[in-house]
Amino acid sequence: MGYRVAVVGATGNVGREMMAILEELAFPVDEMHAVASRRSQGLEVAFGDRTLKCQNLETFDFSKVDIVLMSAGGEVSREWSEKIGKAGPIVIDNSSAFRMDPDVPLIVPEVNPDAIHLAKRKNIIANPNCSTAQLVVALKPLHDAARIKRAVVATYQSVSGTGKAAMDELWNQTKALYGLGDATPKVYPKQIAFNVLPFAGDLKDEGYTSEEEKMWRETHKILDPDIKLTVTCARVPVFVGHSEAVNLEFEEPLDAEDAREILRDAPGVLVVDKPEEGGWVSPVEAAGEFAVFVSRIRNDPTVEYGLNLWVVADNLRKGAALNAVQIAQLLDEQGLITPQAGYRTITV
Description:
By secondary structure, this protein is α/β, with parallel strands linked by helices. It folds into 2 domains: about 5-130 and about 320-335, Rossmann fold; about 130-315, Dihydrodipicolinate Reductase, domain 2 (2-Layer Sandwich), CATH 3.30.360. The protein is built from 8 helices and 14 strands. The longest helix is centred in the middle third of the chain and has 17 residues, at about 130-145. It is globular.
């Protein structure tokens, strides 16, 4: 028997991707509801070979569904997720609203699946930040092998992490620079086309940004609070796919060849690391894929036990929608989804 699922934020990039991945992974869905804001009511979205009309978040009856995938932003989640959880279904929230709540597990299934049993505290599970998700998938097996004591990370984040308007801005600026329109920045503080912005998110304490803060706080909650982690997040003119240059210092010996073998056996990781030009993965190759790709694994001779890595993933998939669906799969495998009362039918 399948489940009744609602996707809140179904018209957005991640919401659409959630619905696509539910279909791709053949998650057991008896009934699918596309839910969005009042202004998107009636808009059509695809689920497999079916077309769904979006329903209004404010009037939707959540007591008649079993799982809710939330991808409507932090403000909407703060207003609605706890209400929905109290109505019965379990909420898998893609925003930052509940990530650091001690009563809400923050889960990457390849890294900390046991935290799933904390979900019933509020009927909410948090999805991590897109950059954090791919980072911890790569770090977990190495941390288990040799204990990471310090990590220095630089991210190269695609514009899709900011949303559709940012993707449109990159496209429009690219055309404009060839004389086909206006290149004035609207979403970002400076031009993103043919440029790199060393700033992602909002300015926080001591000159760091919200994106940088999310990465160290979430990594500490998911993986290990004792890892010393420092981050610089940059925005690059890439439509889909986040990249990370990662420098690691370990407590115990771990050389590059051993790290390759460990990562080849790790869940969710695909090692592409050939000693030749082009023997690595870029965001273009990662787009549309499920894996976290690790390339350019090499020893760092400046510390006693150190490695450098290049980590790339599709931020709309593993960084958001795929991870949420994998959490739903984990709930299903553990028998932690409680079907709600009511008649079941396929909604089209």
